[in-house]
Design goal:
Length: 139
């Protein structure tokens, strides 16, 4: 028997700080119940994808100051639609059908929340995006 909804929820990490209460908007509730745990689960993949993004864009990222790296991450997520859509797919692909149906009711607002969470995940791991040793030797 296919138990995908329960299987998919079972592997999501718990986030104690992502509280849910009655006074929350439906978007904030969905963010805390669904998007945040999925983003945390997918964090290693998000890091690998952004590392690949850096490489595909000629490693310019590595020559930037820390402040400019943060702007680079934000611009990649906000302005590169192909990259942005790929990131959305990584999160949406972990939804249950029920969650997907809830998502479609207000996808625009939830996409903003999703991309903000993704941006914050990448920014909080910015120290992981250092020039690989093979690039240092080749310079």
């Amino acid at each position: 028997m296919n138990d995908r909804p329960n299987d998919i929820k079972r592997i999501r990490p718990e986030i104690p700080s992502a509280r849910v209460h009655d006074q929350m908007s439906s978007e904030e509730r969905f963010q805390n119940e669904t998007i945040r745990p999925i983003a945390k689960l997918q964090n290693p993949l998000l890091i690998a994808i952004f590392s690949n993004y850096i490489a595909k864009h000629k490693n310019v990222f590595y020559d930037l100051s820390i402040d400019k790296r943060a702007v680079y991450i934000e611009n990649a997520i906000q302005k590169d639609m192909k990259f942005r859509n790929g990131l959305k797919g990584i999160i949406i692909g972990q939804f249950t059908v029920e969650e997907y149906l809830r998502y479609t009711e207000n996808s625009s607002a939830l996409n903003k929340r999703m991309m903000n969470i993704t941006k914050e995940r990448l920014l909080s791991n910015i120290q992981l995006f250092e020039r690989p040793m093979t690039l240092i030797k080749a310079s």
